[in-house]
Amino acid sequence: MNKALILTFDVQSKNVRTVAYRATLEYIQENLSNATVYKFTNNQDLLKYVREHTFSSVISTNEIPSDTAFLLKGIGLVQIVIGMRTELMDISDIMIDPLIRNSEKYLNGTGYLLTSLLDVRIPDSKSKSKIE
């Protein structure tokens, strides 16, 4: 089975977007049996770790530095980024952003928001229904 690498970052941000993106990453981490969590410190240590193990994909929030994303792309890992960030659009393979309107190209919109994060109803732009 292909293994996924989940990258976490020690960034001290507590805005709504960051909380939602990190919670989504934690949800994936808890529910993906073939995932290994790695706390990012620098590119050199990350590259060494990736070369010592076999990963087919990397999952992170949009807190990933652009140069790190570019490095991982260069060694052939499929990149899944949670949270839209312009600099990562051409580097990442899949972007998941539950906090922006739906798009044909990206996995975004309230349909991808974890219901456990919702305290209020948010209208879904496609179906005009509400998420509880």
What would you say this structure looks like, in words?
By secondary structure, the protein is of the alpha/beta class. It has one domain: Rossmann fold, CATH 3.40.50. Helices cover 27% and strands 23% of the residues. The protein contains 3 helices and 8 strands; from the N terminus they run E-H-E-H-E-H-E-E-E-E-E. The chain has a 6-stranded parallel beta sheet with strand order 2-1-3-4-5-6, with helices on both faces. Strand 3, helix 3 (66-74) and strand 4 form a beta-alpha-beta unit. The relative contact order is 0.17. Residues 127-132 have low confidence and may be disordered.
The side-by-side strand order for the widest beta sheet comes to 2-1-3-4-5-6
CATH class: Alpha Beta
SS-based class = alpha/beta
The termini sit apart by 35 Å
Number of helices: 3
CATH topology: Rossmann fold
Q: Unreliable stretches, pLDDT < 50, 5 or more residues?
A: 127-132
**Could you report the average pLDDT, rounded to the nearest whole number?**
84
* CA-atom Rg in angstroms: 15 Å
Q: Give the proportion of residues in helices.
A: 25-40%
In CATH, the architecture is 3-Layer(aba) Sandwich
What's the shape? Answer: globular
The tally of structural domains comes to 1
* H-E string: EHEHEHEEEEE
Describe the largest sheet: 6 strands, parallel
Number of extended strands: 8
Oligomeric state of shown chains: single chain
How would you summarize this macromolecular structure in one to three sentences?
The chain has 132 residues and is of the alpha/beta class. The protein has 3 helices and 8 strands; from the N terminus they run E-H-E-H-E-H-E-E-E-E-E.
